[in-house]
Write a structure and sequence with these properties.
With about 130 residues, the chain is an all-alpha fold. The protein has one domain (about 5-125). Helices cover about 70% and strands about 0% of the residues. The protein contains 6 helices and no strands. The longest helix has about 40 residues, at about 35-75. The radius of gyration is 22 Å and the shape is elongated.
């Protein structure tokens, strides 16, 4: 079976694998490759992309565990519940808007995760917003 490899999709896969788009020279080489070589290169890019995705998942888990560990220190210090612990944890931060909350969660490496989206919603109802910008 012969596959057609769309250049845009190949560029997307390359970015998934390496974190940046391929160079124009790489794309020229890609376009000049015979189909069998393209398949081999495609398979390599898929493997690298899958490995990178797994590393990202592991990092997300570590970031969440680290955040929860810090949060637990506030509970040990006397926070009666999670909301109080989050309030204490963020008391030295200045939030002007929900975007500032998102930045806080992003700085913890959590924003683009399911846990991070839940945390943003949780914090939006907990934090105090400063006036002015």
């Amino acid at each position: 079976m012969t596959y057609t490899f769309d250049s845009n999709i190949v560029s997307d896969l390359y970015k998934d694998a390496f974190g940046f788009r391929p160079s124009a020279d790489w794309m020229q080489c890609w376009k000049a490759m015979p189909a069998a070589e393209k398949q081999e290169e495609w398979d390599k890019l898929c493997k690298i992309s899958e490995e990178e995705a797994e590393l990202d998942r592991q990092e997300e888990i570590r970031n969440q565990q680290e955040f929860e560990a810090v949060l637990a220190t506030f509970v040990v210090a006397g926070a009666k519940d999670r909301a109080t612990a989050l309030r204490w944890m963020t008391q030295d931060e200045v939030f002007y808007s929900a975007q500032c909350v998102e930045h806080f969660v992003w700085s913890k490496g959590l924003l683009f995760t399911t846990y991070g989206r839940m945390l943003v919603k949780e914090l939006e109802d907990i934090v105090s917003y400063a006036q002015g910008a």
